[in-house]
TrEMBL record:
Region (Disordered): 28-51
Organism: Qipengyuania marisflavi
Name by which UniProt lists this protein: Heme-binding protein
Superkingdom, taxonomy of origin: Bacteria
Stretch forming the signal peptide: 1-21
InterPro entries: GlcG_carb_metab_protein, PduO/GlcC-like, PduO/GlcC-like_sf
Keywords, sorted A to Z: Signal
Pfam families (alphabetical): HbpS-like (PF03928)
Gene3D superfamilies the record matches: Haem-degrading domain
PROSITE patterns referenced in this protein's UniProt entry, alphabetically: PROKAR_LIPOPROTEIN
């Protein structure tokens, strides 16, 4: 896969341009506070009458806060003898400052580690072995900490590593367990995404990430008065990797430096990842503790100049420190909806900064492909019903227990055009881009043109159609005969099939051989966007001399009207279903932000309820759902999955099998 692109990806070793800047003075060192200290408790305004959710308090990092975070991290890096690049972002991804220490490596090498060893030169697939700018790695880590976290959960890049690998939890003795619950989420928030915004365009958040989400230790969220306000990321050891063994404890210098930077801005202890379980497994927040870090350097003036300098990063920051924006304000790009946008009193929407919603509800634009596109009234009803299911559901990854689920819901037509996006007040930011990826992925793989679109691309992409058809023993696979939810396509995207077993067979949308997998190569998902990613990194490294990647991921042909059906990449973990009118595909709905079974339920049950209310639209007919597909594995039959709804999911109803029979 993408071997023709290897020469270009290896040439990204050039260092980023830097300019000198100075600020502040004096020296101040203090002892670090205990992990969990300084973050306070979540300060949510109590819901007003008629509402079910509380609004996050409008907190933001000041310029002084950013300077303190950088100073603390740089002081710890000096103590450890690891000159590093330090990035700080706000909750919606604005890069507030990038500090490069003298002697810090200009590039990081993406891990070649696989389940069967280490890929050698010429054997790598996907992004394995690529060299990327250290600033890009640090920004990606900071964005990961900010985007995966909320008022109910605090996740780090180590948490991300745990939930994106081929086995959960990842360890040598867990081979054979199912893949991580957010398998594939690392390829979201991409620099080519049409949803994620770009600094140089003057558009407000959520901002893109130069490398998607990170699985390399050294990224944490930042909290202020108990409210998530951003993230910090560290790149200093030259390797951009992941933690393949969650059973041991690593002493990561990058993680220690990042932890020092968070002091005074630490998440409330009660919502740290290690207080949250998934399928009975506790998540991991940090392998480094506060006892591992030294006295804190509190003066930015003491590090700015003597230890390093602020640096511009093309497309992300101009070499200065800026204050963060308060999430929920118009300036953040995510705010409460107006009555004219949604009748839902708890709804939040994406905004353009001038009071206008970025994605007002609209009818389907795909009249050239669909006889009767979705109407604006149908879109509104389905989104309202999905939000109603979300509002009643018990959150899986949120604390305290029995909190309401929080997430984002997106709808698209068969051309991938956004018809509406709605989110709950405190849903993690990553779910915004991911819910749209999920909606588009379900609509794409259920579309009669899916195979033709893939076959018309490069030979490496076209090969996936051949693999799917051989694997399913169906020469018409991916021509709209079956409806694929993201759980179905995810089944085919795992390096071991069926997921949860170990054998010689890889899913046909995954790597060719199971042993080739690592989080930087998942298969089709990666191959579709690697050219875009390389274009963007070339833009960053060249200081803008090379053109940036276009807005709209993949090199697949445009749909009628000039849009891309999967304009922010595909997603391969559950939480979406295609939308049908009778037996005809008319769109997709995706949900992301909480547990994957909850995401499945909100998309599936929300669409069902919306269809019952609107009439004429709804879930795919039972006889064409992907769970009717049976794969023969050496005489043993394995059935694909469609959706999996949680048991007893509602806070206000003891109902158990809420999706059964629908």
């Amino acid at each position: 896969m993408i071997r023709a692109a290897r020469a270009s990806k290896l040439c990204l070793a050039g260092a980023l341009a830097m300019v000198l800047a100075s600020c502040g003075g004096g020296d101040s060192s203090t002892a670090p506070s205990p992990i969990g200290g300084g973050g306070g408790t979540p300060t949510l305004t109590p819901p007003t009458s008629g509402r079910q959710f509380a609004d996050p308090a409008k907190e933001a990092l000041s310029v002084g806060d950013v300077q303190r975070v950088i100073a603390q991290a740089a002081g710890e890096a000096q103590r450890r003898g690891l000159p590093s690049t330090i990035a700080v972002v706000d909750r919606v991804g604005n890069v507030l400052g990038v500090f490069v220490m003298a002697g810090a490596p200009g590039t990081m090498t993406i891990s070649r580690q696989t389940i069967s060893g280490t890929a050698g030169p010429g054997e790598e697939v996907g992004l394995q072995g690529a060299r990327v700018p250290s600033a890009a790695a640090a920004i990606a880590k900071a964005i990961t900490g900010a985007y995966l976290s909320s008022g109910g959960n605090a996740f780090s890049t180590r948490t991300a590593s745990q939930i994106v690998q081929e086995h959960f939890p990842p360890a040598p003795n867990t081979v054979g367990l199912e893949s991580g619950p957010l398998f594939g989420v690392q390829f979201s928030q991409l620099p080519c995404s049409d949803l994620s915004t770009r600094m140089q365009d003057g558009r407000i958040g959520p901002q893109r990430s130069p490398l998607g989400l990170a699985a390399d230790a050294g990224g944490f969220p930042l909290y202020k008065n108990g409210v998530v306000v951003g993230g910090i990321g560290i790149a200093g050891d030259g390797l951009y990797g992941f933690d393949a063994n969650i059973r041991n404890r690593d002493q990561s210098d990058e993680e220690g430096i990042a932890l020092a930077g968070t002091q005074g801005f630490v998440a409330p202890r009660a919502i740290l990842a290690d207080r949250i379980t998934v399928d009975g497994t506790s998540l991991r927040y940090s392998d480094v503790t506060v006892s591992d870090i030294g006295p804190l350097q509190g003066s930015f003036g003491a590090v700015n100049g003597p230890l390093g300098t602020l640096a511009p990063v093309t497309g992300y920051n101009n070499g200065t420190i800026r204050a963060g924006t308060a999430y929920g304000s118009e300036a953040s790009g995510v705010r409460p909806s107006k009555p004219s946008e949604f009748a839902l009193r708890d709804a939040y929407v994406l905004s353009d900064g001038n009071g206008n919603g970025r994605y007002p509800i609209r009818a389907g634009t795909d009249g050239a492909s669909v006889a009767q596109p979705l109407t604006a009234a149908e879109v509104r009803i389905i989104l309202e019903e999905a939000f109603a299911v979300l509002s009643r559901a018990r959150g899986q990854i949120r604390r305290p227990l029995d909190s309401r689920m929080q997430a984002t819901v997106s709808m698209v037509d068969t051309h991938g055009v956004v018809l509406g996006i709605v989110r709950s007040p405190d849903g993690p930011l990553f779910g915004t881009d991911v819910s749209l990826q999920k909606a588009r992925t379900a609509a794409f793989f259920s579309n009669p043109v899916a195979a033709q679109q893939l076959q018309s691309s490069t030979p490496d992409i076209a090969r996936y159609v051949e693999r799917v058809r051989a694997f399913l023993d169906d020469p018409r696979a991916l021509t709209g005969e079956f409806a694929f939810a993201d759980r179905s396509g995810g089944n085919l995207s795992r390096p071991y099939f069926p997921d949860g077993e170990v054998g010689p067979v890889a899913g046909p949308l995954s790597v060719e051989q199971p042993g080739q997998f690592n989080p930087f190569m998942t298969g089709l998902q990666t191959d579709l966007i690697v050219p875009n990613l390389l274009e963007h990194l070339g833009f960053v490294v060249s200081g803008g001399a090379q053109p940036d990647t276009l807005r709209g991921c993949t090199k697949l042909a445009d749909a009628p009207g000039g849009t891309k059906r999967i304009a922010n990449g595909i997603q391969i973990f559950p939480g979406s279903v295609p939308i049908y009118r009778g037996g005809r595909l008319v769109g997709g709905i995706g949900v992301s932000g909480d547990g994957i079974d909850q995401d499945d339920m909100v998309s599936f049950l929300g669409l069902h309820n919306g269809g019952q209310r609107a009439g004429g639209v709804g879930n795919a007919p039972v006889e064409i759902r992907a769970d009717r597909i049976v794969v023969n594995l050496g005489g043993r039959n394995v059935r694909l999955r469609y959706v999996s709804c949680p048991f007893a999911p509602f806070l206000d109803d003891p109902a158990q099998n809420v999706c059964q029979g629908l």
